[in-house]
């Protein structure tokens, strides 16, 4: 019997003994995780709802939560007053029923600040676009001048 045949036979015997043990350990871990997640609840998606309505829905599911006023951001410029904009942990996540939720909302002051920010960003983009347009025109003019000079030199040298 050659060395390779001996190692092949030993490998098969060892694998045959270890595979069932590995499967048992894997099954134990999987069962433990499934048991742990049995009491998990899916967080309802209350983004876009008025704060009062969102609070009622979350209380119906048994979640404790706090209301947090969001800071101004251009993305909130089209929101409505007292609208829920974000949940932490995220909506539609599976979490234990005892999880504490943070409900972020916008009020009229936040929305007006967000509109101002959005307008500033729009203005800055317009200025940048105009600046890029002017630079492109300048480059085209310079390229045209260089081309004309080269054309004149070429005709003169003939």
UniProtKB/TrEMBL annotation:
It comes from the Bacteria. Residues 37-107 form the PASTA domain. This is PASTA domain-containing protein.
């Amino acid at each position: 019997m050659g060395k390779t045949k001996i190692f092949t036979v030993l490998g098969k015997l060892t694998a045959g003994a270890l595979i069932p043990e590995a499967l048992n350990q894997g099954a134990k871990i999987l069962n433990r995780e499934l048991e742990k997640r049995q009491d998990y609840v899916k967080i309802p998606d209350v983004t876009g709802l008025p704060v009062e309505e969102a609070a009622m829905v979350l209380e119906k599911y048994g979640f404790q939560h706090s209301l947090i006023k969001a800071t101004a951001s251009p993305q909130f410029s089209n929101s409505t007053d007292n609208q829920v904009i974000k949940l932490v942990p995220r909506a539609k996540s599976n979490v234990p029923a005892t999880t504490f939720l943070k409900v972020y909302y916008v009020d009229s002051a936040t929305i007006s600040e967000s509109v101002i920010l959005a307008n500033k960003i729009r203005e800055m983009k317009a200025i940048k676009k105009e600046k890029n347009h002017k630079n492109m025109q300048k480059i085209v003019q310079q390229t045209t001048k260089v081309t004309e000079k080269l054309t004149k030199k070429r005709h003169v040298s003939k």
